[in-house]
């Protein structure tokens, strides 16, 4: 794949869309009203539209290394607030994936420079769940479980925000925790009990 091929592919994509609906781009330009805010990993193998089977306009997307929801990351917080308070999305998805390079890198005893403070968030997830993770003897299984727990903790970080708390109360916004299995293509719902988690953290994190 090179740059020239990208633009050729773009022309083919335009032609395909217009052959199905001559007003496709006119309609797309009218605005957006997505149902989902998708927060995923920057990994080049994991794209929201493909794995969810959705079209442009159906999901507002934010991606970063290891799908983190860091309260001091202005980028993710800006996306979150815009999606919830202005676009009025009804569902927020945090989607991790097995064999995540960011998760594995976080657990290596190495100085990764500028990545250190970012990946420390994953080390914090490990610390919170150390007993469960250390009991898993197989390394790959342990990393996969850390991927799942990282998704859960990023969802908890969403529940700590005022925008999400307000939207849950007023219009039933839901938070979802998913994992994508690259080896099978399967999208897995972790079925996290967010109602219980929200109740447990309300005493400390209630903002609305």
UniProtKB/TrEMBL annotation:
Q: Does the keyword Zinc apply?
A: yes
Q: Which residues form the signal peptide?
A: none
Supply the EC number(s): 4.2.1.1
Which catalysed reactions does the entry list for this protein? hydrogencarbonate + H(+) = CO2 + H2O
- Give the matching SMART domains: Pro_CA
Could you list this entry's UniProt keywords, alphabetically sorted: Lyase, Zinc
Q: What class of enzyme is it?
A: lyase
- UniProt entry tagged with the keyword Protease: no
Q: Which SUPFAM superfamilies match?
A: beta-carbonic anhydrase, cab
- InterPro entries from the xrefs? Carbonic_anhydrase, Carbonic_anhydrase_CS, Carbonic_anhydrase_sf
Cross-referenced Pfam families, in alphabetical order?
A: Pro_CA
Query: What PANTHER family does the entry give?
Result: CARBONIC ANHYDRASE
Which family does the entry's similarity section mention? Belongs to the beta-class carbonic anhydrase family.
The protein here is known as carbonic anhydrase
Could you tell me which species this protein originates from? Pedobacter vanadiisoli
């Amino acid at each position: 794949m090179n740059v020239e091929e990208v633009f050729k592919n773009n022309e083919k994509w335009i032609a395909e869309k217009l052959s199905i609906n001559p007003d496709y781009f006119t309609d797309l330009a009218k605005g957006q009203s997505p149902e989902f805010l998708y927060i995923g990993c920057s990994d080049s193998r994991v794209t929201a539209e493909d794995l969810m089977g959705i079209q442009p306009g159906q999901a507002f997307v934010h991606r970063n290394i290891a799908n983190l929801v860091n309260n001091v990351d202005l980028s993710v917080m800006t996306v979150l607030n815009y999606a919830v308070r202005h676009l009025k999305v009804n569902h927020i998805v945090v989607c991790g994936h097995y064999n995540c390079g960011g998760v594995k890198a976080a657990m290596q005893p190495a100085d990764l420079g500028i990545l250190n403070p970012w990946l420390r968030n994953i080390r914090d997830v490990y610390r919170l769940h150390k007993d469960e993770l250390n009991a898993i003897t197989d390394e790959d299984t342990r990393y996969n479980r850390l991927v799942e727990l990282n998704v859960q903790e990023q969802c908890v970080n969403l529940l700590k925000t005022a925008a999400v708390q307000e939207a849950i109360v007023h219009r039933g916004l839901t938070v979802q925790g998913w994992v994508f299995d690259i080896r099978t293509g399967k999208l897995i719902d972790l079925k996290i009990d967010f109602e219980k988690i929200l109740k447990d953290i309300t005493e400390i994190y209630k903002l609305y």
